[in-house]
Amino acid sequence: xxxxxxxxxxxxxxxxxxxxxxxxxxxxxxxxxxxxxxxxxxxxxxxxxxxxxxxxxxxxxxxxxxxxxxxxxxxxxxxxxxxxxxxxxxxxxxxxxxxxxxxxxxxxxxxxxxxxxxxxxxxxxxxxxxxxxxxxxxxxxxxxxxxxxxxxxxxxxxxxxxxxxxxxxxxxxxxxxxxxxxxxxxxxxxxxxxxxxxxxxxxxxxxxxxxxxxxxxxxxxxxxxxxxxxxxxxxxxxxxxxxxxxxxxxxxxxxxxxxxxxxxxxxxxxxxxxxxxxxxxxxxxxxxxxxxxxxxxxxxxxxxxxxxxxxxxxxxxxxxxxxxxxxxxxxxxxxxxxxxxxxxxxxxxxxxxxxxxxxxxxxxxxxxxxxxxxxxxxxxxxxxxxxxxxxxxxxxxxxxxxxxxxxxxxxxxxxxxxxxxxxxxxxxxxxxxxxxxxxxxxxxxxxxxxxxxxxxxxxxxxxxxxxxxxxxxxxxxxxxxxxxxxxxxxxxxxxxxxxxxxxxxxxxxxxxxxxxxxxxxxxxxxxxxxxxxxxxxxxxxxxxxxxxxxxxxxxxxxxxxxxxxxxxxxxxxxxxxxxxxxxxxxxxxxxxxxxxxxxxxxxxxxxxxxxxxxxxxxxxxxxxxxxxxxxxxxxxxxxxxxxxxxxxxxxxxxxxxxxxxxxxxxxx
Length: 668
Description:
Keywords: Signal. Residues 1-21 form the signal peptide. Residues 148-184 are annotated as: Disordered. There is one protein chain. The protein has 668 residues and is mainly beta. It has 4 domains: 7-151, Lipocalin, CATH 2.40.128; 338-391, no CATH class; 393-438, no CATH class; 442-668, no CATH class. The strands form 12 sheets. A 6-stranded antiparallel sheet has the order 5-4-3-2-1-6. Strands 24, 25, 26, 27 and 28 form a 5-stranded antiparallel sheet that branches. Helix 1 crosses helix 4 (131-158). The protein starts with 6 loop residues before the first helix and ends with a strand.
């Protein structure tokens, strides 16, 4: 005997997948089966399989003794991989424990196999369908098996018991012979009563009707003994059998190139009004030819192989509606090569992808194929080419350099372009393409400005109202913070009025006045300043007066420029070295009024201005050379003028284009 199970529990034993949410998904439930009857598609029409991978409770239910039976059909259309679609429709389940009871599945299961090989015993596949209905069918099969077993058991008992309706009872009869006694049976009367028990209705398919059935049972009134029990016998019509399509679908007979509309037989129970299905879905009378529909499928693009296959699906026209049997499948006997052309922009230019990091451009391609009825059909648009590219080229002739003086570097600019099959295309106009190039450092260079005494057109010195040389000014260039000043006194000392600083932003005058026999020199005196500063200064004239001393003002400090005879001890004494020491001093030779200077300190005086020629015929500033201080003799009628030289240093950098850039130098 089988163990009893509820329908929900049985479903849980069958399910391979999780719980199903809706009616459509119920039809997609899955269970594993193992082939027990081999078959070869196209030759064999049926097969069998058993349930596998069962839980212990499923085995207790008896699923391991039940076997599925189904019909086999094959789609003759060969797939792209050379296989065929083989369908198994599982329609019945049979008990294999000895009763051979067989039940039709109200909703058949389906298995699809893609192969061109025979299917062997032991191969496992998935059966798909409504397992709720399967569980109900299995439960009915189990009930029928139990009834069959009970019937077999009852028949065995009845074969050992007389069914005369008389039950023997023990008694005795005999003669008076001594020692011989014979038991004589006696009988009691047990009234027999006939009753009826309803059976399942009998499906009379030939008459297309459902007939009522019952058993006739004869029972002893007194003993309760069942004396006889007939088989189920019909005794009237319950209801006519009707036909509907329902959810049966279609049976696709690919080997016959036809499909049959499946129908459901049913009857209406007179007592409840319920529709009761009669067996499983079965073939109806309507048969339709299988057709190939290609316009309903999109072509299949095999991108790796650059080919397009048209696709078709099989089905049939039923009631003016297309009913599909298969999905869209590529047709192996027809293909179209995929061609390419340049993708174009609004102005018909070739579209491209520019890679400025790697200096290369790729054309974009449109991919298409020629369809026999649709014409040019595109499968991809603006796809980067993998076989064609154009390297970036550069032209610097029209661009030059962009100088960055702040960073002391320059950027080479160039036009970037590519050569395409349709001509040159400019990508960037005068853009940077390489790393900046640093300026080349050449070295330090000295810049100087020379101030001489000022004369008018009549060659007369220009003097202020106070009788001093006219003021001149020097404007410090932008960026300059360090000046060096050379000051040379004139050949004679005159009276000088010191003009002090009047405000923080106005310097006192720098006076280069005349010396005695020879003016004195201060060289490379440092001045800390700032760009844009205006410095006033005066350059003294040569005279014939001698033996005087002048105080020179530079910035806020006093520089003593001495005018006196040669006296090295005076210059070397610590108390007279205030800020700077003249590097040359005037000479007085042998008491003669003629002054004698030292050669070696040379300036370019303005042409046409008074000067003394030394023995070397050099034009020397006052304080250096013969007659520098004035005095006796034809050459000493007047001393030479003073001179002021303002200097600063710059760093010389050469740009990549050959031009120079100068940066003020703030060091020593």
